[in-house]
User: What shape does this take?
Amino acid sequence: MPKHTGAAYNLGILLDDSGRTEEAEQMFRQASDASHTDATANLGVLYAKAGRNEEAEQMYRQAAAANHTYATYALGVLLVESARSEESE
Assistant: This one.
């Protein structure tokens, strides 16, 4: 993991909190591409908030595969909300 991955992740959080979603997505993507699992999960959250459910599902699945607890939960919620509850179990 590059040494500035954590900084990119934290900047993504600040940008998202400031409503600068596109810039936040870039920072989360940079950190996610370097295997920062929290960033991958946050990309899922960002995509879900924007109604980009297929992308959110992909990010949640990726983070859940790395045993990220919140991503696993969020994936289940997303699947239930999309009426795919059999997959959420």
